[in-house]
Amino acid sequence: MGVSSRKFLGTVAGLALALGVTGTAVADVPESSRPIVIPMNNWTGETINAAVAGQILEDMGYNVEYVAIGAIAMAQGVADGDVTYAPELWDNNLGDLYADYIVEGKILDLGEVG
To answer: Taking the model in full, what pTM does it have?
Structure first.
């Protein structure tokens, strides 16, 4: 098994453990009944990140809605407020659009994934 595979499996195992530990310690009453819209892109890492985040939010009592969407439409959806959370938004796929959204305060860069 390569380093990337081990790192990936370690990340998934860590997230699963964190979910198991925190799953019983969180409130079942969410702050809002509005669904949290999470995009599902066509690459494995993003799909797994989205599914894990969505499961954690569902376990916390939130309504989660998944949408199949491409990278540029995902960025536009976040900027417009139609997509609540994007686990992976690659700036190199978006060109100047990414920088414009950051400057305009339409998206918030929370750091690198992986």
So the answer is: 0.68
